[in-house]
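hey so i finaly got around to running the thing on 5-formyltetrahydrofolate cyclo-ligase from Flavobacterium zubiriense. pasting the sequence first so u can double check i didnt mess up the copy paste, my clipboard has been acting weird all day
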Amino acid sequence: METHKKELRLKYKTLRKQLSENEMEAMSLAISNQLLQLDIWDKNYFHIFLPIVEHHEIDTELILHLLSGKDKEILISKSNFQTREMTHYLLTDTTKIKKNEYNIPEPVDGIEVPSKKIEVVFIPLLAFDTKGHRVGYGKGFYDKFLGECQATTIKIGLSFFEAEERIEDVHDGDMQLDYCVTPKTIYKF
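ok and heres what it spat out for the 3d tokens, dont ask me to read them lol
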């Protein structure tokens, strides 16, 4: 079985496409319930992604409710495809969200918060392995962003599917996860 990023991207994009809306909803709910068991709730600054619906990503709406219910500072990003950089904005009641050309929902503007302040990051991914390596869409946005965070920042991958044994082509610049949460399992690395 090939376990290179390219093949894994293809495999998991296909698996995701086969999920029905009901399955995705139930799995997203299971993932957000799992998060309650993690030792992260004493932190204040949480970064979350808004799902690209067309890519069948995890619905993070439930996690957003969880965070606002616990009165956390929630950050969402805007991506610059030229520089591959992400700018993080505080999510407030007045934040306007607009989809960019890649269908990524993003804040139009707002109060900027530096990466260094962020304590917990929820990370989208296509696949991950038992060592905490992840496969994203291959643009390197998150690796760059996570490299700007503190060493203590907690990195949590969210996945509909369980871990692969091992991703072969891991690079030095690939940031490892601290946890990955699936509907059934909490992986701690």
